[in-house]
# Entry
Amino acid sequence: MTAKIPTAKRPTPAIDQRHMKAALGLARRGLGDVWPNPAVGCVLVRPDLGGRIVGRGWTQPGGRPHAETEALPRAGTLARGATAYVSLEPCSHTGETDPCASALIDAGVSRVVVAVTDPDARVSGKGLAMLREAGLEVETGICAAEAQVVNEGFFNRIQKNRPLVSLKLATTLDGCIATRTGESQWITGPAARQRGHLLRARHDAIITGIGTVLADDPAMTCRLPGLASRSPIRTVLDSRARLTSQSQLAATAGDPPTWQYTCIGAPTENLGTTAIERCEVSADQNNQVDINAVLTDLADRGITRALVEAGPGLSAGFLKSGTVDTLYWFRAPVVMGADGKSAAADIGVSDLADMAHFALDATMPVGEDRLEIYSRRAAA
# Structure
């Protein structure tokens, strides 16, 4: 029999929001490490014990255990009569584990506050219905906008069949990434580069082009202390399969995994027997790997968040495709002028209406540089 809500003063909307924000903070810990699942946080609170937090949990690496089944054992018997604040609707289907909605019911939780419903057809509304049918009080929509942002990648994969795409740029004030001779290391300072590595840790995959790989032979890993295990899947768009076995990516292809996207029918001899996984997709009108086909394949593989770190050509390709959801722009306080190489190549702008439009979400100093964060918006 499900426990009733203990006799206590009902939490105010402000209290509900505070606990949900805590759950969302826990959810963010999983970003980049829980795909193909969403990153979820759960906080268990006892209103009758003065609002005491008795359990916390968040989605674990690889997507399991889920947040609720992490929080409940930590609360133990104190879960009975508690309010559960969950950043995403508890699952209602049996997969590798039993449904989280059932776990909350069996633990005797009395009230469940959910930020947003799960768009996955296996869940969508069914978890909430299961809780209500068991007699639990259910409330939704608390901090919904913030929760939507946290799991935008998961929602994109379910609803748009592509991951969230973030484009990272590091430039001078006037948008240059290198001198006319190609010198680029380093335009931004150490603090900005560290923040860039943190971005890698918070994404499931990192995307670059073969031009960047051939020119720089990058490792494309997260090299922050303690976060090496959070390096994303390395993805190279390589239309004609020019990546060779002598590259860093080939030498370390198994850890982290490396995926090479080529056009169908591209040569196969360059890599030899490396651990790089070759993925063939259709070509676009320029006989380059089709960006939308790559994003669809990434979504099919479970990728929810992809970070683009590329040269001017591929950066322009993503901007032109209209698939860039978030723009992370690191600007150094220097000016290079017309001699410099632009961060983005031609994207086909002949009229102002053709430009890629973004809205500024945040700006902050990062060492001597500045980070600007933008989200995509429709043209006015």
The first strand starts at residue 41 and ends at 46.
